[in-house]
Amino acid sequence: MSIYLHKHSPHDQSAVASLLRVQGLCKNYRRGGLWQRQMPIAAVCSVAFEIPRGQTLALVGESGSGKSTLARCVTRLERPDSGQILIEGTDIAQLHSRELAPFRSRIQMVFQDAATAMNPRFSALQVIEEPLRIHATGEQVGSDRPNRREIVRSLMIEVGISPDWMHRPIGHFSGGQRQRLALARALALRPQLLVLDEALSGLDLSTQAQIANLLLDLQTSHCLTYLFISHDLALAARLADSIGVMSEGELVELGPTQQILSNPNHTATRTLLASAKSAAANLAAITGASA
Predict the structure, then answer these.
(1) 52 lies in the same domain as 100
(2) Mean pLDDT, residues 238-258 taken together
(3) 7 lies in some domain
(4) Going by DSSP bridges, is the β-strand pair 18-31/250-256 parallel, antiparallel, or unpaired?
(5) How big, in percent rounded to 5, are the helix, strand and coil portions of the chain?
(6) Are 193 and 224 in contact (CB under 8 A)?
(7) φ, ψ of residue 176 in degrees (nearest 5)
(8) Widest distance between CA atoms in the chain
(9) Which residues pair with 39 in a beta bridge?
(10) How many H-runs (helices) and E-runs (strands) does the chain carry?
(11) How confident is the model at residue 202 (pLDDT cuts 50, 70, 90)?
(12) Boundary-marking domain end, from 159, 190, 221
């Protein structure tokens, strides 16, 4: 059963300027109780990669491989211990809060569980409008609300949610709809880079396919660059221009999507590829049996 779902045309990556470049990134945690010696645990170890503007790099790996820690470092939700995170040549790895402020709107993150990433008491309007208020975007003389509401309306249409539902509480939306709203919120500040941390893994296969197609459309219309985090190699192959494989905190393999799928070199890559093919074969058998 084929998992070659990648639909991008090939690019000459050397001809495209990199939006994001990560060099020698390391992040350690410490384990141990109050009266125990704390031992460093390497969550991310000397990781290096770059993403050309407008392209997608998928980082795949088993749970605990360091993917999400890397995502939090790139978005500066956490500060790395060492290494560089270059956004168009500016290293944001060790910047402090005020120095980071100009970069916050340029890098946005979409989490796996949209429900826990949103205030459950908010309406769809409030969820999408929140980053605009925080960053004082969409203001008009006299009243900023009409302009912001128009931005929210436009974003809801773009992600496939009726703007007539903007006053509905978040709890009244399905999982797929909440993820669409999370995308709308992330796009509100017109970012250059979206970090998608297992953003499709909690959805059923049909909804996954719909959101994947939406991501491709949004990437084209907004000239977005994606860092896509997933444990699903088949899903990564659908979206990514290149794939990096994480294992025990290290980036053990990196290359163009078709190269990684057709000629995997590392054991971790071969394991993920075998799992993806097995899942595809099982799905085909189930579908055929129910037809």
Answers:
(1) yes
(2) 95
(3) no
(4) unpaired
(5) 40, 25, 35
(6) yes
(7) -65, -40
(8) 63
(9) 31
(10) 9, 10
(11) confident
(12) 190
Q: What is the 3-state secondary structure (H, E, C) of 205-222?
A: HHHHHHHHHHHHHHHHHH
In 3D space, the residue among 70, 27, 75 whose CA is nearest the CA of residue 193 turns out to be: 75
Can you tell me which residue has the tokens 């890098």? 107
β-bridge mates for residue 109, sequence order: 195
Separation of alpha carbons 166 and 173, rounded Å: 11
- For 88-135, write each residue's pLDDT tens digit: 989 999 898 888 988 889 999 998 887 788 888 899 999 999 999 888
The pLDDT score that the predictor gives to residue 134 is 85
Looking at the fold, whether 97 and 211 belong to one and the same domain comes out as: yes
| CATH code of residue 79 | 3.40.50.300
Model pLDDT for residues 213-234, shown as the tens digit of each residue: 999 999 999 999 999 999 999 8
Residues contacting residue 40 through CB under 8 Å, at least 6 positions apart: 28, 29, 30
Q: Parallel, antiparallel, or unpaired for β 90-91 and 82-87?
A: antiparallel
Instruction: Give the pair of three-digit tokens for residue 131.
Output: 């980053």
- Whether the pTM exceeds 0.70: the reply is yes
Q: Which domain holds residue 247?
A: 15-106+193-285
What's the length of the chain? 291
Candidates 136, 232, 128; CA nearest to 177 is 128
Cα(139)–Cα(27) distance, integer angstroms:
39
Domains in the chain: how many in total? 2
156: amino acid identity, one letter: M
At which residue do the structure tokens 């579908």 appear? 287
**CA-CA distance, 53 to 225, in Å (whole number)?**
6
pLDDT by residue (tens digit) across 249-259?
A: 999 999 999 99
pLDDT confidence of residue 94: 87
